Amino acid sequence: MNRREVLHCSLALLLAPAVPGLASAADAKDGRTVLVVGDSLSAEYGLQRGQGWVALLEQRLGTGRKPYQVRNASISGDTTSGGRSRLPPLLAQVKPAVVVIELGANDALRGLPLAASRENLLAMVKASQAAGAKVLVVGMQMPPNYGAAYERDFEAMFVQVARETKATLLPFLLKGVADRPDAREAGWFQADGIHPVAKAHPLMLDNVWAALKPLL
């Protein structure tokens, strides 16, 4: 199964349980915090606590010399609109040095206009930058059943947002996972074919880390 097939539209991404992660101002130490605002791919959907890439990022930062905390404000099923509405209080309370935005897939699954999704992502990046944070935009890709034009425009949306705001871009969170020729046979995804299993999350972290490390 190729990466496009394993990214097939599934209601599981929309109906997965919420995992909020709001931190108090007292928890943020001098702004040395990485704030992750994402959906189920970042909210440990279907995994044991501590197995997701965000938790692994916190472990990596905790064992290194980088004095950063990680706050995971990802909610399964969230859209760019939801993230945009949640972001201002998060910025005020967490006071992050870096904001990682991993949203957009659920917009596509719900058939929301890409123009609106792009506007929401732009607003989130600009709000984060106005609050003094650096931003990492995490891109995703959609399966071909949406049509070649939509697939192309969806992927380009993240590139355009990052370019316009001069934010850092990670083109594809699931690189090395969803594009594996043995993605299904080797069990890289849960039964829904959407959410990666635990062994995939270290690879996802490596993808994020390559883009995130220069921002720290």
The CATH H-level homologous superfamily = SGNH hydrolase
Biggest β-sheet description = 5 strands, parallel
Domains counted in the coordinates: how many?
A: 1
In terms of quaternary structure, the protein is: single chain
Principal-axes shape call: globular
Adjacency order of strands in the biggest sheet: 2-1-3-4-5
Structure description:
The protein is an alpha/beta fold. The protein has one domain (3-215): 3-Layer(aba) Sandwich (Rossmann fold). The chain is built from 8 helices and 5 strands; from the N terminus they run ααβαβαβααβαβα. It has a 5-stranded parallel β-sheet, with helices on both faces. The longest helix has 18 residues, at 148-165. Mean pLDDT is 87; it is low at 1-29.
Write the layout of secondary structure elements.
Elements: H1 3-6, H2 12-15, E1 33-38, H3 53-63, E2 69-72, H4 80-94, E3 98-102, H5 105-109, H6 114-130, E4 134-138, H7 148-165, E5 168-170, H8 201-212
Parallel strand pairs: 1-2, 1-3, 3-4, 4-5
Helix pairs in contact: 3-8, 4-6, 6-7
Keywords:
8 helices, 5-stranded parallel beta sheet, 216 residues, 40% helix
